[in-house]
């Protein structure tokens, strides 16, 4: 993690200010100290005392509003767009948000009799009692849901050759279902798409796992009989290797970062916003304004200045407050892509509906066969 501090990439070429007496090259420690100093300066409302000289104070976009962004996009364009998303882009698909009270996933976990809700995603608990996780996985299993307009907007960015990378916190695989290629994805919290044996690390496919989960058995390895676990990141597990290897390259190139449907509360994911260089425009599409008031004490040393919407020194941050789908549709409309997006959604949903109907029929058939098998075996027993 040491090369992943959010300050390292963007402050390298920063001219020295009057307060810095050292002539030595900036070390990791310097940049960390700088981030801490800025953090406290901001907390104490010393915003005007900040010295954000990297890239100057010139606005990247003259009019820092959603309309201003759309005008800039149409006239000057963006070439390397990164999208960075959380549960908010999947809620309209019907997937419950982990964290929203009432509708949230944790509230539905009572029936599993867990010692505490998050135990369902803890390795220790899983290894001793994997059954509740798989019962929940059956309820939430990818394939029962269709991607949302937000997913298809990202797919459209890819189709138009503009998507550099899509960083997602979601484990629902809706990005893959929406047709965003695997090499464009960083699934920061893992995925149901691949599965590994906890004993011998043998790889199992999504199809194999699906069959196990829907037949209500705890998936166990064909070679060593250990439990097989989907590659979603549990508490205490490392994030995927690409989360550490790709940002340095990606965020250096990125000229537009679109942040959607995330509270920016979960680290280290949230700190990605500070990896974007000073010339990168950052658009937040979310129901509430987030990322502009970092106060999480537990991870405060990780944080850069965050998003600057309400700061007089803002040069490049824009917020669209509303649902992700509405924001994406508004962008598509402003860019003249409304028909492209509508066409893509229609054809893809038709394709998926057909596939899902086929899967449902197969499951029904399997269930009927199982029932008749059970019946005949009961009869056999009765005879005996
Ligand atoms: Zn095994």
From TrEMBL:
<feature type="active site" description="Proton acceptor">
    <location>
        <position position="189"/>
    </location>
</feature>
<feature type="domain" description="Deacetylase sirtuin-type">
    <location>
        <begin position="59"/>
        <end position="338"/>
    </location>
</feature>
<dbReference type="InterPro" id="IPR026590">
    <property type="entry name" value="Ssirtuin_cat_dom"/>
</dbReference>
<feature type="region of interest" description="Disordered">
    <location>
        <begin position="352"/>
        <end position="384"/>
    </location>
</feature>
<feature type="compositionally biased region" description="Polar residues">
    <location>
        <begin position="1"/>
        <end position="12"/>
    </location>
</feature>
<dbReference type="InterPro" id="IPR017328">
    <property type="entry name" value="Sirtuin_class_I"/>
</dbReference>
<dbReference type="InterPro" id="IPR029035">
    <property type="entry name" value="DHS-like_NAD/FAD-binding_dom"/>
</dbReference>
<feature type="region of interest" description="Disordered">
    <location>
        <begin position="1"/>
        <end position="32"/>
    </location>
</feature>
<keyword id="KW-0479">Metal-binding</keyword>
<dbReference type="GO" id="GO:0140773">
    <property type="term" value="F:NAD-dependent protein demyristoylase activity"/>
</dbReference>
<dbReference type="InterPro" id="IPR050134">
    <property type="entry name" value="NAD-dep_sirtuin_deacylases"/>
</dbReference>
<dbReference type="GO" id="GO:0017136">
    <property type="term" value="F:histone deacetylase activity, NAD-dependent"/>
</dbReference>
<comment type="similarity">
    <text>Belongs to the sirtuin family. Class I subfamily.</text>
</comment>
<feature type="binding site">
    <location>
        <position position="224"/>
    </location>
    <ligand>
        <name>Zn(2+)</name>
    </ligand>
</feature>
<dbReference type="InterPro" id="IPR003000">
    <property type="entry name" value="Sirtuin"/>
</dbReference>
<keyword id="KW-0862">Zinc</keyword>
<dbReference type="Pfam" id="PF02146">
    <property type="entry name" value="SIR2"/>
</dbReference>
<feature type="binding site">
    <location>
        <position position="221"/>
    </location>
    <ligand>
        <name>Zn(2+)</name>
    </ligand>
</feature>
<keyword id="KW-0808">Transferase</keyword>
<keyword id="KW-0520">NAD</keyword>
<dbReference type="GO" id="GO:0005634">
    <property type="term" value="C:nucleus"/>
</dbReference>
<feature type="binding site">
    <location>
        <position position="200"/>
    </location>
    <ligand>
        <name>Zn(2+)</name>
    </ligand>
</feature>
<dbReference type="GO" id="GO:0140774">
    <property type="term" value="F:NAD-dependent protein depalmitoylase activity"/>
</dbReference>
<protein>
    <recommendedName>
        <fullName>NAD-dependent protein deacetylase</fullName>
        <ecNumber>2.3.1.286</ecNumber>
    </recommendedName>
</protein>
<dbReference type="GO" id="GO:0046872">
    <property type="term" value="F:metal ion binding"/>
</dbReference>
<dbReference type="InterPro" id="IPR026591">
    <property type="entry name" value="Sirtuin_cat_small_dom_sf"/>
</dbReference>
<feature type="binding site">
    <location>
        <position position="197"/>
    </location>
    <ligand>
        <name>Zn(2+)</name>
    </ligand>
</feature>
<dbReference type="GO" id="GO:0070403">
    <property type="term" value="F:NAD+ binding"/>
</dbReference>
């Amino acid at each position: 993690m040491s090369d992943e501090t959010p300050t390292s990439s963007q402050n390298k070429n920063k001219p020295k200010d009057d307060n810095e007496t050292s002539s030595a090259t900036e070390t990791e420690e310097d940049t960390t100290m700088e981030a801490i100093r800025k953090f406290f300066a901001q907390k104490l409302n010393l915003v005007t005392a900040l010295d954000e000289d990297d890239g100057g104070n010139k606005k990247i976009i003259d009019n820092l509003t959603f309309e201003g962004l759309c005008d800039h996009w149409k006239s000057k364009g963006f070439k390397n767009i990164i999208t960075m998303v959380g549960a908010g882009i999947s809620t309209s698909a019907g997937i419950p948000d982990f964290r929203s009270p009432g509708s949230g996933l944790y509230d539905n976990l009572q029936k599993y009799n867990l010692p505490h809700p998050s135990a369902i995603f803890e390795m220790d608990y899983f290894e001793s009692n994997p059954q509740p996780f798989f019962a929940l996985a059956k309820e939430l299993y990818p394939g029962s849901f269709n991607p949302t307009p937000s997913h298809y907007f990202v797919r459209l960015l890819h189709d138009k050759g503009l998507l550099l990378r899509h960083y997602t916190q979601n484990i629902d695989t809706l990005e893959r279902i929406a047709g965003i290629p695997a090499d464009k994805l960083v699934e920061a919290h893992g995925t149901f798409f691949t599965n590994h044996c906890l004993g011998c690390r043998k790889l199992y496919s999504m199809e194999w796992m699906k069959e196990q989960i829907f037949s209500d058995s705890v998936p166990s390895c064909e070679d060593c009989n250990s439990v097989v676990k989907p590659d979603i990141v549990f508490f205490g597990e490392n994030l995927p290797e690409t989360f550490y290897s790709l940002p340095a390259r990606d965020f250096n190139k990125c000229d537009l970062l679109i942040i959607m449907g995330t509270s920016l509360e979960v680290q280290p994911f949230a700190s990605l916003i500070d990896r974007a260089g000073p010339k990168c425009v950052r658009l937040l599409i979310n129901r509430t304004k987030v990322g502009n008031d970092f106060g999480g004490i537990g991870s405060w040393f990780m944080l850069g200045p965050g998003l600057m919407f309400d700061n007089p020194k803002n040069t490049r941050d824009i917020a669209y407050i509303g649902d992700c789908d509405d924001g994406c549709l508004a962008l598509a409309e402003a860019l003249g892509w409304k028909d492209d997006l509508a066409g893509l959604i229609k054809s893809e949903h038709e394709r998926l509906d057909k596939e899902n109907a086929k899967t449902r029929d197969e499951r029904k058939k399997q269930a009927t066969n199982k029932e008749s098998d059970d019946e005949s075996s009961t009869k056999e027993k009765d005879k005996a």
